[in-house]
Amino acid sequence: MFKKIKAKTIAVIMAFAIVFAGVPALTIAEPCNTVSQAEAAQAKTTRKNSSRKKSSKKKSSKKKSAKKKSSKKKSSKKKSAKKKSSKKKSSMKKKSTSKKSSKKSAKKTSSRIKSAKKTTQKKSAKKKATAKNTTTTQTTSRNSAQKKNTQNNSSSRKGASGEAKTFQNNTSDVKPADNIKSKTVPKSTSKKTTKAKKTSKKKYTEVRGLWVSVYDYPSLGLKTDSKATFKKNADKLLKKMQSYKLNTLYMQVRAYDDAAWKSKTFHAMKYISPKATKLGYKNASKKAASTLKFDPMQVMIKEAHAKKIKIVAWMNPYRCSTGSNDYYLDPANGKSQSRVVNAVKEVMTYNVDGIVFDDYFYTAVLGYKNTSGIITRSAFSADHWLKASKKRQNVNNLIKKVYKAVKASNKKATFGIAPQGNLENDRALGADIDTWLSKNGYIDYLMPQIYWSNNWGSSHTKMFSNRLKQFRKSSLNKNGRMKYVALALYRSGEKPNQSSKWTDYGWSKSKSNIASQYKELKKAGCEGFSLFSAQFLNKSAGKAEMKNLKKVLSK
What we know:
CATH class of the largest domain: Alpha Beta
Number of helices: 17
Strand order of the largest sheet: 10-9-8-5-2-1-12-11
Distance between the termini: 133 Å
Helix content: 40-55%
Oligomer: single chain
Number of strands: 12
Structural class: alpha/beta
CATH superfamily of the largest domain: Glycosidases
Strand content: 5-15%
CATH architecture of the largest domain: Alpha-Beta Barrel
CATH topology of the largest domain: TIM Barrel
């Protein structure tokens, strides 16, 4: 029994091997003589049927997989085709929208270009118009003070520093493509120009002056009968002023009832003319028009204005001479007043920027005398004992007349007074500070001579600060005409007198007194200063002070 089962299993295994290997059944089955022929035939048929079924299954599975693959490929192709079509549609839409937007932007850019061109054309037209106006005004008045670089038509100690900058609007040079990017390009440039103009105005409104005294003329080379020499040395002085940022020259043209111009009424100033000095006392009977070989004041005005420096004529009203026998015009006498006014009128025929009087009014000398037909008071006259209020009244009569004469000649010209820095002394000498700083019709500005430092006396008093506060006090400076301060450059490096309790120590202990005083007066609301005097620009101590002042002025 066991042998039969074993033989059957071996035969089945061999049959499967023959089917898969493709070897003839007889050759393989020959060793097994135990299997019958009928059984072998049945096994063979069953094997063939099973192999056929398996092959058919394989073929059907292959067909199914092929169908699936083809269907997948078709679906993927359809999807990709749909995606491509959708992409094409979206791209077409984008292109159409971009075309529309580009058309719109092109329209906008063209409109912007047109508007930019219009604005630049308008601006260029305005520039041409202004240029024409300026050229016409320059040709009509060559000797007039130039508009941009001269500042206030003010006072005896005033002026403008630096040159005005002109700014051009460069929008006309910008290409249309650049203007398209930003509409605000031309606007921003115009804003910058307005700001620059504002700053330049600030620079030119401040007075930075220099007093040129008759005692300065010889050392400055201005006492000469040669016009060429005078012009050369005047140019040298003016250039030095420019280097120190100064802009207003206060030229003393009348010191002792004389004239630094070709006057037909007054004799020539001996401090500016060697010929007048040689004439001596005979000079008083001759007129400056015949004595002077050229007109010093006219030359100085022309040279100063060419450098954009203002020039103010400095005049002493009453003083006729100095020395042991001092003579003064009588302030109470109408003829004396007329003589002073006539001198002012003569000077105003020149192209000066203003007139300034200094502190010489009534004096401490006993009385007045008659001399050379000029109306004066005799010694020990009653006028010496006049009350201060009466003196101020007499002086005010003259001041009002001078103010009217200046304005009648040139409304833009200024008239100012530079009194002492001591209010009580001013009032006693007839300088009516209170009226001048509260009422109209007298002066355009006041410039007190505050010639002290802030280290004065044994108590080291801040004298400059104290006097500045007195003059700037609102109860006194009611009309705001206390505008400028005269500063003591002449005291630079001054050695103190140790034996005097009134000595001013500040000038020997510091080289920046003027610079500090400038800062203080600016802080107090003043509009400028003037330095006394020109010859001290060449002194070593004066140079040290000016070096420190220049640093402050350059900021």
